[in-house]
Recover the amino acids of this structure.
């Protein structure tokens, strides 16, 4: 038996683990007791979510659509066909007729090469990934105010240093269990925990102060806290004078958000708002933690900027334990952003519109590069519908379940001339592809991940990929070769990493594989090989903005629309409101999230027997008062409908949700609540859709209706899957060459 140290493939915490291997199979996983983040522990997904690696349904050879069927083909046939079609589309319709969805589960090296393929080979900035749907407001909002769209502090600081932790819009215990452990460690040594959340989560139950705000009311709450801090002169006046711009605008903006007025708006007692503000502002080191309960709104960027305003005004930034901590949801979503898998930035966050930065990368890659900002993930469906985008390459993502209003996305896919999907399994998205490429996955490839605290860590192969499955970097390199681009002469992931170190030296020059192999990662920026990495950003009041100062911004909110006269009173305010509100037809509000047992669209975790046993089906949370009014009992089937679709699932009658709110997930194809979410309303600054609020109707259903619904969903999501999997199982002997 052999063992291999690597990093967990699930959330962005970046836990270290040891894989025990026998006969080219992972048979057991153990935690790494020396790792500073996980400290010898793993969550349920980390311990038991490895069975997907050896699942018999893995894709093992390239597949090509023949009518309604898939046939197995060789890599040469698949790549030659893709290259020929992409060259033809580029010649006929230009580079921007192509778009690429990169992957937050791919390595840094693979994200680097995929965005390079889009820009240097295809000639377009139409590259994006799922951060657009989770933390795009973080990338935009923190870059706008602080100069870096990333977590400012390390995870261990929460448990060891922070004496106040403010969690807003994060179900930390379920979505980031090992970070929650550090929060509880802080509480054990006397730190105060403040939680703002509409749901009664585990963290809310453990809080010293729980602020149960309504869905979407983050901005008025934070503005009210700022109102108290400024009125009571608890703000960091010297720090603000020396290291910020825009304070006067923020101070004037929050005058209208007294605790009393916000209490009337939210139902949160004014005394609790005042207490939260005082506790936060007077802490020696206060950290703010947030996740998609803040970002997935049409005012997501405004929510993030509000959190940054709060930290800067109170002086709770730039020190150990004091800062702004966005908790990333996937293993390498931070790395995918850092490596340029976004339509507006090159690797290292350099703007594609910057002439010097574009010239730098042109010289490095040997070709002219596009100047215009590309399409966001949320803009691609309409571009496909109109024929502007004719070819789409989806690398390791399953947008048919993860994107909002998935029915519309599926209709857009039908308009394409070419859809290529690289993945581990024949997913709900892959079954719609023209060509499906079998990808090597976690546990099978070499490289690095960047976790939510900017810690770059080595991931290592433990087993061989099944059949002819290949790592993503190999796919893009060989496709580029066929398309006539000679700038991808890589033989191994380290070659890609060393190029990255050369083209983004300020962040990565000091991170050699040798250094990363002998320590638990390094946090960027790490500009030289004797640099220890940077655990705390913005120390000494030095920010990454053009001025070097934190740029505070007035953020305004009204449930319906901010009055025009109020907007005009401020210079470029950020505006927040709720785009879809309950009415007579849809009197409930649907909000979405995750469960501790499963991950994303369930592609990996639903292959793990224990996890599937613990979380076998979707459960919709429904408040007891609503259940009584609708004559719905625990475990009864209910139908939740919005203006975009409906799901049927069992009711979980619980006070976790307030009255007139229901909560569901997107883990289960049988009842994916993302079908119902709003893709039409986007945050104007970051482009994220409003997943977290959809006006909904709740009615009682029946087992018969639920069974018929599952049959319809199976045909919609899973049609052709079994046929395609059968083709892959016979691929070794029957591939078309």
């Amino acid at each position: 038996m052999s063992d291999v140290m690597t990093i967990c493939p699930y959330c962005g915490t970046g836990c270290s683990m040891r894989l025990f291997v026998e006969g080219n199979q992972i048979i057991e996983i153990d935690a790494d007791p020396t790792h500073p983040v996980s400290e010898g522990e793993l969550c349920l997904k980390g311990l038991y979510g490895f069975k997907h690696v050896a699942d018999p349904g893995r894709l093992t050879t390239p597949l090509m659509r023949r009518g309604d069927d898939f046939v197995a083909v060789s890599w040469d046939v698949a790549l030659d066909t893709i290259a020929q079609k992409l060259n033809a589309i580029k010649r006929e319709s230009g580079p921007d007729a192509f778009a690429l969805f990169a992957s937050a589960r791919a390595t840094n090296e693979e994200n680097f090469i995929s965005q390079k393929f889009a820009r240097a080979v295809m000639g377009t900035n139409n590259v994006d990934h799922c951060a657009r749907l989770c933390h795009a407001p973080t990338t935009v909002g923190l870059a706008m105010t602080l100069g870096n769209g990333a977590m400012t502090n390390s995870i261990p600081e929460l448990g060891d240093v922070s004496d106040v932790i403010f969690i807003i819009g994060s179900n930390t215990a379920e979505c980031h269990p090992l970070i929650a452990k550090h929060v509880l460690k802080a509480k054990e040594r006397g730190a105060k925990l403040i939680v703002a959340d509409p749901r009664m989560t585990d963290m809310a139950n453990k809080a010293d102060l729980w602020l149960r705000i309504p869905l979407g009311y983050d901005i008025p709450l934070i503005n009210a806290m700022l109102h108290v801090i400024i009125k009571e002169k608890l703000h960091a006046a010297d720090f603000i004078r020396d290291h910020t711009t825009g304070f006067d605008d923020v101070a004037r903006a929050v005058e209208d958000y007294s605790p009393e007025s916000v209490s009337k708006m939210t139902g949160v007692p004014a005394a609790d708002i005042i207490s939260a503000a005082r506790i936060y502002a007077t802490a020696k080191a206060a950290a703010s933690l947030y996740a998609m309960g803040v970002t997935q709104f049409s005012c997501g960027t405004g929510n993030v900027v509000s959190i940054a305003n709060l930290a800067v005004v109170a002086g709770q930034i730039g020190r150990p334990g004091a800062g702004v901590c966005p908790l990333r949801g996937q293993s390498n979503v931070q790395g995918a952003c850092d490596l340029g898998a976004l339509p507006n930035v090159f690797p290292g966050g350099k703007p594609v519109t910057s002439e010097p930065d574009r010239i730098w990368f042109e010289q490095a890659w040997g070709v002219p590069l596009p100047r215009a900002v590309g399409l966001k993930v949320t803009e691609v469906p309409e571009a496909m519908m109109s024929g502007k985008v004719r070819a789409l390459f989806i690398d390791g993502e399953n947008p048919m379940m993860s994107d909002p209003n998935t029915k519309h996305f599926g209709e857009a896919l039908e308009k394409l001339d070419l859809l290529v999907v690289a993945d581990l399994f024949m997913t709900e998205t892959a079954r719609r592809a023209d060509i499906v490429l079998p990808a090597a996955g976690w546990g099978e490839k070499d490289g690095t991940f960047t976790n939510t605290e900017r810690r770059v860590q080595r991931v290592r192969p433990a087993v061989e990929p099944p059949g002819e499955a290949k790592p993503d970097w190999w796919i893009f390199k060989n496709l580029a070769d066929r398309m006539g681009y000679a700038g991808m002469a890589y033989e191994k992931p380290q070659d890609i990493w060393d190029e990255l170190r050369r083209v983004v030296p300020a962040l990565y020059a000091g991170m050699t594989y040798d250094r990363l192999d002998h320590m638990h990662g390094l946090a960027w920026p790490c500009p030289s090989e004797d640099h220890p990495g940077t655990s705390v950003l913005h120390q000494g009041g030095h920010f990454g903005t053009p001025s070097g100062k934190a740029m505070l911004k007035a953020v305004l909110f009204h449930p319906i629309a901010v009055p025009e006269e109020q907007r005009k009173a401020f210079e470029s305010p950020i505006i927040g409101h709720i785009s879809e509100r309950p009415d007579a037809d849809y009197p409930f509000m649907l909000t979405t999230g995750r469960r501790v047992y499963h991950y994303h669209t369930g592609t990996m975790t639903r292959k793990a027997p224990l996890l599937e046993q613990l979380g076998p089906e979707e459960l919709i949370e429904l408040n007891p008062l609503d259940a009584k009014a609708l004559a719905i009992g625990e475990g009864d089937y209910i139908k939740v409908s919005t203006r975009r679709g409906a799901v049927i699932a069992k009711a979980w009658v619980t006070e976790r949700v307030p009255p007139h709110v229901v909560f569901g997930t997107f883990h289960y194809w049988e009842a994916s609540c993302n079908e119902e979410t709003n893709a039409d309303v986007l945050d104007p600054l970051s482009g994220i859709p409003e997943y977290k609020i959809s006006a909904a109707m709740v009615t009682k259903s029946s087992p018969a209706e639920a069974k018929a619904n599952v049959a319809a969903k199976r045909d919609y999501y899973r049609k052709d899957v079994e046929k395609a999997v059968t083709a892959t199982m016979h691929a070794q002997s029957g591939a078309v060459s």
Residues 166 and 388 are 44 Å apart (CA to CA).
